[in-house]
Amino acid sequence: MKKIHLLILQAFIRPFMVCFCIVMFVLLMLFLFKYIDDLIGKGFEWYVLMELIGYQCAVQLSMALPLSMLLSSIMTFGNLGESYELVAIKAAGYSLRKAMTPLIFLVTLFAAGSFLFSDYILPVVNLKMGSLLWDVRNKKADFLIKPGIFNSSIPGYSIRAKNKSENGTVLYNLMIYDHRAGNAANNVLLAKEGFMQNSADNNYMILRLKDGIRYEESRTKNAKRYDPRQQFTRFRFKETETKFDMEAFQMKRTDESLFKTHHSMLNLKQLKLYTDSNRLQLDSISKGVFTEAKNYVTYLSPYYHDQKEKPLAVKKFTNFLTDVVPADQRRSVIGNALGQLQQMNNVFEMKEAEYKIFVEKDIRYHIEFHRKFTLAVSCLLLFAIGAPLGAIIRKGGLGLPVVVAIIFFLIYHIISTMAEKAAKDGSLDPILGMWMAIIVLSPLAMFLTYKSATDSSLFDIEQYKLQVERAWKWVTGRFKKKLQH
C-alpha cells in the first residue's frame, strides 16, 4: 500500500474513533436522562446498570455509526485540504477518487459489518434490552421512610416515623398499622425506637423495636356493631423484632420468550417467516369477509352465475328500479337493499379490528426488514457526502465540520423519521418510507463528489459575490439599452 493511502487511512481512523466515542456518550446520556426516574432509588446492583448500558450502546450503534462516519470524513478531508495535503496529492498525479480508494474499501467493510450486526446481533440485543428494561421499569422503588409521612409500599402495612437518624437505619417514635386482615385498625404497634436491617438473603427487612406497646383487637370480618365477645389485647415490650416480606421490592426477571415475536427482535429469516404467516392470516380474513358478505348480495347481472346453475335470461334495462321493478314493489325492494347493506356493514365492522392488527404487523415486519439494509447503505451515503464536503470546505478541527455534519445529519434523520412514521401509519409504502432519506440525499452526494473532483469552490463567498456583481452588471446593462432605445 502506498504512503498516500496510509496517510489518508491514519488521518481518518483517529477522528472516527474519537467521534464515535463522543457520539455514543451523548446518545447514552440522552437514554439515561430519559429513564432517570426508573433507575434512581430502586437499589440496583452495579452489574445490572452496566448490563443495561452495554445493551443500550449496541442499540444506539444504528445512529452513532452513520453520524460518526459523516463527521470523521468531513474532519479528515477538511484537515487535508486546510494543510494543502490534498493539493500535494493531486500534484503528485493522484486524483481524489484514486486517493480515496482504500478508504472507500474500509467504509464498505464497516457497512458490511453493520449489516451483519443488524441481522445477527441486534435482534438478540433488542431482546435482552427489552426484557431487562421492562423489569427495571416495573421494579418498585426501595423502601424509604420519610419523617412524619405514612409509608404503605409494603403490602399490608402502613408505617410512620416521626424522626430518623442521618444514615436512615434508626427510626424514632414509630407507628405501625397491620391491616393484612382487611381492617386498618385491628392491629397497631407503637415504639419509641426501631432499628432496620436486611436479612442475609435480602428477602426480608427486620425491624428491631424497643420500648413499645402493641394493641390487638379480634373483630369479626365486616362486622358493623360492637360484639362483647371480641377480645382486645394490649401488651408492652422492651425489645422485639418484626419481619417484613420484601419480595415486592425484588426485581423479577421476565421470561425472554414472551418478547421474541416482536418485530425488532427478529432477523431476516424470521421476518420472512412471520411475514408469510401474517399474510396467510390476512388472506384468511379477507376470504371470510367475502364469503359472509356474498350472502347479502343478490346478483341480477346476466353475466353472473354459479358454476352449477345456468345463467338466467334478464332483459336489458337502463334503470333497474324503474324498468324492471313494479311500482308497488319498489319500496320493499329499497328496504331489502338497505337491510342487506346494513348486514354487510356489520360484517365489515366485526372483522375490521382484527384485520387492522394483522395489517399493522405486516407493515412493521416490512419496515424492520428494510431497516437491516438501510443502516449499511446510510454509512456509505453519509461518507459519500462527508468526504467531498470536507475537501470542498477545507476546514479541519471541531468547529465548522461539526456544524456542517450536524446540519446534514439532522436533514437525513428528519427525512428518515418522518418517512418511517408515514410508513407506520400506512400512508406511505414501507419500502419507500425506509429508503426515502437515501433516495433524497443520493443526488446531493453525487453532486458534491462531482464538485470536489473538479476543484469547485462551492463554499467560497468571494466567488458568489463576483457572480452576483456580474449578474447585476448584466441586468443594469440590459436596462440601460432598453432606455436608450
TrEMBL record:
UniProt topology in membrane: Multi-pass membrane protein
Source organism per UniProt: Sphingobacterium oryzagri
InterPro entries noted in UniProt: LptG/LptF_permease
Compartments (UniProt record): Cell membrane
Keywords assigned by UniProt, alphabetized: Cell membrane, Membrane, Transmembrane, Transmembrane helix
Highest taxon of the lineage: Bacteria
Positions of transmembrane segments: 12-33, 53-78, 99-122, 373-393, 400-419, 431-450
Protein name: LptF/LptG family permease
